[in-house]
């Protein structure tokens, strides 16, 4: 998503910081992914951005949803999404939440441990469970392995355990890591999944679902594979490694790739100073109010209204709170003439920004406006 | 603050996670600090915990308040705290917030750059400003220097600049770093402050205020100096280095030391699993819902109800969200027999916990109960 005249005008007229959401871009992303992976059902990962207009747009396009909590389930129910279109994708669930989901009619539950199998068996007897393989995701910004997923042998024994506990061992999921840069990671993961499929088939257990997880990247500062390229790799890998398994349900759980490039975070310089050899620029938005991912070194493209990168300087960019952790980037290049009250755009900030927002230090998270709302506001 | 029978009973009866606040402990901390530093005015740093009962208790004891935003100012106004008892201690302020504060009657403003001086001069002409020295705070858990404060020569020129811009150059602040372990850091900082006092006196500028900042530590896992010991060092250092400057207003901005040991975060194990060689324990509270400081490696004392540390195991402790950053501690020692549904207490978690809480992943931050509320709830 590009900074356009509407956003420029809004940045001048409205109080910053705010996040602009382009719902049309979300729709485009959905349709493009759907076209790139025709046989794949899309379960949007609500955690990336749970703004109600995003959820409604995806609902209307026929998307399903990957949920992680009762809070997310209830938000979807409130806009009439059927539980049949939800998958409880968090392998760390409270038992009472499992029961709540099951009684509503949610069918699919994620597991990656024996204990989680037992919890699901107690509260959702007969549910379909899928187990998560931990992939080696060193080509991604967030290697999610470790906390989630486990090795192939363990996945096999978990699904057998599910079977013995009266659940339906239904499928395999993996996650190549959020913001993955290597399309062949999907091939590797599908190959690994096929090992589980085949071994369990020999044990009389026929899995029905392959869950590709998320991880499709959004363009920030590094080059990325396209959705179409990833779709091709996925399609070929399924044909090559899973041809024995007919009528597979194939799903994916995109988060960042649905909404990342549908948002721009608009902020303002509220202070510039020099301390010793260092130049500091302070914004009215920071780590605790939307830019949490920067402390894990996520690199946003930053644009400064009216200023160019032809001449740059080295700056430390920080947020407005009385907290040293609220330092966005140390020693980054910004236009040399960046100055007080300049408008600063964080491009492609639609995912995992306001969702992490707190009210720390008495400062509210950025307001969120859709393009339509913005048009109304500055009319 | 210790886990007592009331908290134990509440942990069994109420839904976790929740934070218990002992307001009596806050009062004790205030009185103890006041007694240790008799000539010092206490400005409670609201950001540490802005719970309304804490603010009311401190108001009633005569505390003043260090505020960082309009949000914090408004919260204090709502309980009748006079703006005369507030200091705007954030050196990164929005201009309109400066004006708002000044018009309300707030007198003291923090600055650590020329530009901030100019902003205050425009919106709060005639205000009293204090400038912050960056101290070398390598004996603390959070060395706050870098983002805040600047060197001695710069502080002098900033205060001269304030003078030329029609402000009252009023004082010097420093901050030895949050959770400081070395009491002589206060001595060093007061010595540095005295250099500024003396140099400015030669220029005809008489400073009136010494702001000791915060940094008084709370007992977690490392040994700490007591408030009394720190008070003694402060007292001696002021007599030794600042004796020329009569009728000094001396203030301190405690946050963690007022509320840190007045809170216990109560959570539950919702999953235990083994992955490869690693054992994982997942709680119903995590980094995004109260334990943010653990990702900066803050070490809480952790107790597990009914389990002892006589036999320990190495575990990775993680929160409940679908986010790998939500990993509290890697490879820590916990009771070897920690298990599903065990109650886990984070001791001395009254500061900087729920204040950072978000609603990420559809999960609400922990509820907060005072001891009195808890008694009512489990009656």
TrEMBL record, chains A, B:
Keyword Zinc: no
Domain Orn/DAP/Arg decarboxylase 2 N-terminal: 24-259
UniProt keyword Cytoplasm present: no
Cofactor(s) needed for function: pyridoxal 5'-phosphate
Pathway it works in: Amine and polyamine biosynthesis; putrescine biosynthesis via L-ornithine pathway; putrescine from L-ornithine: step 1/1
MF terms (GO), sorted A to Z: ornithine decarboxylase activity
Positions where N6-(pyridoxal phosphate)lysine occurs in the chain: 47
Keywords, comma-separated and alphabetical: Lyase, Pyridoxal phosphate
EC numbers: 4.1.1.17
Catalyzed reactions per annotation: L-ornithine + H(+) = putrescine + CO2
Active site: residue positions: 322 (proton donor)
SUPFAM superfamilies on file: Alanine racemase C-terminal domain-like (SSF50621), PLP-binding barrel (SSF51419)
Any Gene Ontology biological process: putrescine biosynthetic process from arginine, via ornithine
Entry GO CC: cytoplasm
Annotated TM spans: none
Family to which the UniProt record says this protein belongs: Belongs to the Orn/Lys/Arg decarboxylase class-II family.
PANTHER family: ARGININE/DIAMINOPIMELATE/ORNITHINE DECARBOXYLASE, ORNITHINE DECARBOXYLASE 1-RELATED
Protein known as: ornithine decarboxylase
Organism of derivation: Marinitoga piezophila (strain DSM 14283 / JCM 11233 / KA3)
